[in-house]
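User: Hey, my collaborator sent me this sequence without any context and asked if I could get a structure. I don't really work with proteins. Can you help?
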Amino acid sequence: MRTATTDRVRKHRDSLRELGLKPLQIWIPDTRSESFRQQCERESLLVASDPHEAEILDWIGKVADTDGWV
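Assistant: No problem. I've predicted the 3D structure and written it out in structure-token form, which is a compact way to encode the shape of the chain:
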């Protein structure tokens, strides 16, 4: 037996399919996990010790289009 919620979801998905869309599932890293934090820290330390980092950041600052930003 279907619930009202199940019927609404099915109807909504059917209407999206009629528009030519299809469902897509994407898996992304869990940003709340300790392993994600550790990986970010490790990569940040690697970049911070790169001798070209200051040069690259300076270049980005020069070419970035920030007109209209707050």
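In plain terms: The chain has a mean pLDDT of 93. You can pass these tokens on to your collaborator as they are.
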